[in-house]
């Protein structure tokens, strides 16, 4: 193991770790090092003579994320390979609050995203730092990524982001997680019908080329396109994901997007009841992105009323399903 790397459990058990009030302390899981992390470290290094990175240990990560990231040792070795990093502390035990109390750094430097809201474990560390008179700094500057990164991102980063947002909702609305889980267990016995418009969300990652000589418009180069189910269809997928039996009733075009929606919903455990309408395409909303900004959106849709025969088939399907239904969700 790199000499820069140490485990928090060894620090506490050896009891020979001197505080370093000249150090700047960072924290994160750092599954893959990208330019945003380098800027974060460069900014943090301005606030101390040494840069110490506290790395979230495997055992402290949410279960939904743990199997999707590199092991703590691999992540620590990657950090230690950076010249700007003086020491890496794997948080295999204890909390960031405990480390702040023990280390007594000159500054605790966190990402800008935690300035308005911090998960409870970070909030406790921030309170501890302020109680000890330690500067708490939030890394300034906009984080920018290459255009195609917007369409990817590692599964672990997505899961962690969703987990943090979920924790914020629980805290803001005073929701007890155990009670919520009990209600979700009861949901598994329910049959829910979701009704609404089927939409395919298409994201097009682009690179800016410049301004056109022919007209005052921005010129971009298309890099990559990805399609996702949206509208009421994604609501049905979430209902099924929560454990309920879910039927989804909607109208699509007689096209490839309609087939894509049917296939993906079936794979997600939804029972799709889709009526094809040859007079309209499956609604598609196309968003063009340059770096981390949406440039503009194009909607491909037709809004004329349903034909009488399709309307009758929709109503008959609702009547056939109604005896077994516990709830109907209208998604507009």
Automatic annotation (TrEMBL):
Molecular function GO terms recorded: heptose 7-phosphate kinase activity; heptose-1-phosphate adenylyltransferase activity
InterPro entries: Cyt_trans-like, PfkB_dom, Ribokinase-like, Rossmann-like_a/b/a_fold
Keyword Protein biosynthesis part of the UniProt annotation: no
Domain annotation Cytidyltransferase-like: ranges: 25-149
Keywords on record: Carbohydrate metabolism, Multifunctional enzyme
Gene3D superfamilies xrefs: 3.40.1190.20, HUPs
Keyword tRNA processing: no
The protein's name in its UniProt record: Cytidyltransferase-like domain-containing protein
Location of the Carbohydrate kinase PfkB domain: 191-292
Cellular component terms per the entry's GO annotation: cytosol
Organism encoding this protein: marine metagenome
Signal peptide start-end: none
